[in-house]
Amino acid sequence: MSPQLEEPIARRTTKSRILEAAMLRFAQYSYEETRLRDIAADVGIDVALVHRSFGSKERLFEEVVSVAFQARQVLSGEVADLPERLTERLLEPSLDRALRVVDPLDIIVRNLLSREAIPILRNALFRDVVDPLDAKLAAPSAQRAALLAACLAGIGILRHVVRAEPLQEEHDDAIRPLLRGLIEGILNGPA
Hints:
By secondary structure, the protein is mainly α. It is 67% helix and 0% strand.
C-alpha cells in the first residue's frame, strides 16, 4: 500500500479521498452504474461535497481518468527516450501511479460500452496522449500517435486485464526488446 493511503484519513484531503473512492468505483462499475451518492457514502461525506469538489459526475470521471493514467508524465522528456520509457511503463505493475489503488485499464475496460464515458475517454486519450505525442514527433502525425496509443492499450489490456500467459512478467526479458522495437518502428518508421 502506498504511503499516501496509509496516512490517517484526516490527513488526506477530502478531494483526494473522493478521487480515490471514485477510482475504485469506476474500476468496478460502469459510468452509468456509478452514482455520486455511492462515492460520497464510501468516503463518509454528503453528496453535496462531491458536487462542490468536482462539479459533476462527468468532471469527476475526467479527473479519475487523468490521474489514473498520468500520461503526460510518461510522455515528458525527449522523443529519443520514449521507446524505453513507454516499454518500462507497460511492463511495470499497472496500478495507477498517483494513488496506487486500481489498475487504470480496469476503468477503460469497465467503461468501453458506456455511451456517456466513451466521449470522455476519447477526449482524455487525445488530450493526454495523442496530441502531446503528435507534437513531439519530427513529422507530426496524429495517425502514428493514435496507432501507438492503440498498440500500447491493447498490449496493456492483454497483459494486465486478460493476463495472457505469453505477456506475463516471467517473459519480460523476451518481451522488452520486442516492445521497444514496436514503439521505435511506429515512432520512427517510414512515412
